[in-house]
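Need tokens for this chain, all 199 residues.
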Amino acid sequence: MLSALSVVANFCTIPLPGNNAISFTITVCFFTGIYFGALPAAIVGYVGDLVAHLIHPLGDYNWFMALSITLYGVICALVYKLRLPKIVKLLISAAICFVVCLCGLNTFGLWLQYIVGVKASPIGLWDFFAGDHGAIKKSFWLYLAGRAPMSAVNLAVNAALVALLQESRSVAKLVKRLKEKNTAASDETKTTNGRQTSK
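Here are the structure tokens for all 199 residues:
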């Protein structure tokens, strides 16, 4: 369900000038990481990005952006293991994701694709290191300086949405029901497997 929601969030992305965007996928990834853990969050982020690309590709698949989206929920899930107030954990998660995901992987992938002119993939990375850097019109750091302000806005919008979700009682009840159903299904599977083994 959350993977499907991640796909929908990808299509609800609001494009902004300079290869920037407001992407609500971050909210879905953070939410999954907070309430369901690192592995489900990684799956939700990656599957949502991949399926959205397969349905409506916008050029070559950007491996660095895919890794960035996969890590949002993982980072959030790990930070939320700390014994700190929820808002503090959210701010720490947002700060790490801003540096690692948005300013690092995301921006580097777009820079390779649109400025350097190679595929944002392992093969493209090899072409970049083996190629002539003198032909590159804009350095990564200059490109990052232009993207960073809007990337901060993107993350701030998503962090605000996650903060609202954290304080919602209806969301807490929904998560509790989902976890109970998941636990019940897991117990039923174990019982069935146990019967089959004994037979």
